[in-house]
Amino acid sequence: MSSPPPEATPSTLEPVKPPTAELLIVTGMSGAGRSTAANALEDLGWYVVDNLPPQMLGTLADLVSRTPQTLPKLAVVIDVRGKALFNDMRETLAALERSGVEFSVLFLEASDEVLVSRYELQRRPHPLQAGGRILDGIRAERELLRDLRETADSVLDTSSFNVHALTKAVADMFSTSGPVVLRLTVMSFGFKYGVPADANFLADVRFIPNPHWVPALRPRTGKDPEVRDYVFGHHGTPTFVDRFVAMLEPVFAGYRTENKHYASIAIGCTGGKHRSVAITEEVARRLSKSPRVTVNIQHRDLGRE
């Protein structure tokens, strides 16, 4: 009869890695959708603190680091509503870095025209408007946030988003926990409708013959096999896709090493219906095979004609 296994002792137990918490700082332009983003994060299980004075961020981060089981995912919304208190934001973030606190910054922005329209719709003054126009407040805020935007981990342009689109974008970025997972959005678009402002990488596939000029293919889209075969039948298409994906793979490996969670790839043709859709589908298919990567496909302008 075999003897029972020896009882585990402190020297034989496997070391347990202490859990760590995620700290996300949500900031950006007033009117760009911070409240919507905060609500979306809350729906995803994040504990959200809104309008926190920057001076309190260090205390909150220390609390979370000591009790990560209680608040494993914390999102803090900090913006110019704090007025004079916001001036210490840059030094606060530098102090967090010096103390070894890991965090990421999501910066929301939109064009001046869109922000003015949103404020006029809400009939509310801009927090930095003072006695001037809404546009004066927007420009002052954009200048105040310039350095913060340049150092943000993710910049999300919400100019073309409604509430539902922004909620989905935030969910795509933050629904999966874990710092080693890179969330990619691969988007097709039409140049005639404008270039996506928040793309990290942009590819122009208008060098491929346009299926629009083939009567049998014109009503179809890049999702249809006939259009895909036509697009990939061009001698330059397979080479382009091979090299484009090969170029992206080492970049994304570096992103994961640097704890970057999100990247956006935009692939454009004239109308966003044929070539860009077919290429986007193939690029997304290949990238989805990469380790520790999740891929979200968006066809921004499909059906817009």
Automatic annotation (TrEMBL):
Record-annotated RapZ-like N-terminal domain positions: 22-176
One MF term in the entry's GO annotations: ATP binding
Residues involved in ATP binding: G28, M29, S30, G31, A32, G33, R34, S35
Domain of life the protein comes from: Bacteria
Keyword Endoplasmic reticulum: no
Record domain RapZ C-terminal: where: 183-302
Record's keyword terms, sorted: ATP-binding, GTP-binding, Nucleotide-binding
Presence of keyword Nucleotide-binding: yes
UniProt: GTP binding residues: D79, V80, R81, G82
Protein name listed in UniProt: UPF0042 nucleotide-binding protein
